Structures are given as structure tokens and as C-alpha cells.
Amino acid sequence: MKTTLLTVALALGTAATGAAQIEGSFDRSLTVSGPVDLDVVTDSGGITVTPGSSGSVHVHAILKAQHGWFDSGDVERHIREIERNPPIEQNGNQIRIGYVHSRELLKNISMRLEIQTPSETKLRARADSGGIRVEGIQGPADCHTDSGGIDVRNVDSEVHAAADSGGIHIENVKGATYARVDSGGIEANDIAGPIDAE
After folding, report:
1. Which among 95, 97, 86 has a CA at the least distance from the CA of 36?
2. Rounded CA separation 88/77 (Å)
3. Do 105 and 123 touch, CB atoms closer than 8 A?
4. Integer Cα distance of 123 and 97 in angstroms
5. Omega of the bond leading into 140 within 30 degrees of 0 (cis)
6. Which of 22, 27, 99, 115 has its CA 20 to 30 A from that of 58?
7. What is the pLDDT of residue 165?
8. E-strand spans in 6-165?
9. Predicted local confidence at residue 21, as pLDDT
10. Which residues are paired to 104 by β-bridges?
11. What is the Cα–Cα distance from 45 to 24, expressed in whole angstroms?
């Protein structure tokens, strides 16, 4: 009996490890001309936006399976589907990233988005679970995360940042700054415009 239980436990552990090791990724480069209107969302994994070349937006996504050994087959199938059909929409200089056709597609999957965009970019970023880091864009930048920190630096216009759980750090902003946090601190340095923090 003990041997049987040990065998089952080892099997479950192996399956869980296998699920945790399921990974994927996708890369896309989008041609733009002029200021970019960028809208980014992820359920889990985090978002990073940094300046890149003036004529393109480059998206690199890292997909990883999370807990749930029992549905690892579905998770891997969903990761491969996302790799084949990345959730990226472009209409001229308006770009939407992370908007999947079904929330079930991202069940037990984290999708970390690393984006390089022209400095002339207006940003809206949303993460359910994961941090948001933004640096070196013209803005404005509007960031919200349910669970995770927000770090915004070197933005040439106003910043809106809200975190339900997690700290906010804002530095070197030339416009107004609005910051809200339910659980966690707010740090703001070198803000040229008015600050409204709570």
C-alpha cells in the first residue's frame, strides 16, 4: 500500500513538473509611422514597455504554464495556439496587444509582454497579476494592475498609475501624476507637474 501511494505521489509530482515546464513564445514587428496609440493587457505575467526604433513596434511574449498538472494537455495546446495566432491587432498606428478571443485560452498560462515602441507613444496597460514597467515614452501613460507593482520612468507627459496590491514608483515625469494604491506605497521623484496621490 505504501509503495502504491509513493508511486502515485511520484507520478503526480512528475506530471506537475512537466506542466510547469511547458513554455512558448512569439515575436512580431509592426511597421508604424508617427505617434503610436498602444493598448496592452495580460491576465498574468507582467508588461514591460521601453523605447525602440522610430518606425516599428516590436513585441516579444513569453508564455508559461502555471499550476494545474491535470490539464497540462489543454495548456500546451493553448500555448501553441497563441504562438500560431498572437493576440495582436493593428489599425494604422493603433495597436492592441493581449486581447485574446476567449479568456479560457489563457487559463493557467502566464503571458509576459516585452514591447519596444517609438518614444512617441501613448500607452494604456492593464495586468491582472504581474508588474508593469514603462520607461522612455512621450505618453501619456495609463497603467493599472490588480496584483503587482508599477514602475514608470522618463515620461514626457502625464501619468496615471493604480495598483490594487503592490507599490508604485514614478520618476522623471514632465506632466501631472495621478497615483492610487490600495495596499502598498507610492514613491514619486522629479515630477514637473502636479501630483495627486492616495
Report:
1. 95
2. 19
3. no
4. 11
5. yes
6. 22
7. 86
8. 23-31, 36-44, 47-51, 56-65, 88-91, 94-97, 109-117, 121-129, 132-135, 141-147, 150-155, 159-165
9. 79
10. none
11. 13
Amino acid at the residue 1: M
pLDDT of residue 72: 62
Q: What is the pTM of this model?
A: 0.86
For residue 22, is pLDDT > 60?
yes
Element (H, E) at 74: helix 72-84
SS3 102: coil
Phi, psi of 12 (to 5 degrees): -65, -40
As a whole number of angstroms, the distance between CA 89 and CA 16 comes to 34
Which is it for strands 109-117 and 56-65: parallel, antiparallel or unpaired?
antiparallel
Q: Which residue type does 166 have?
A: G
Length of the chain measured in residues:
198
Query: H or E stretch including 10?
Result: helix 2-20
Name which of 35, 167, 151 is nearest 159 in CA terms: 151
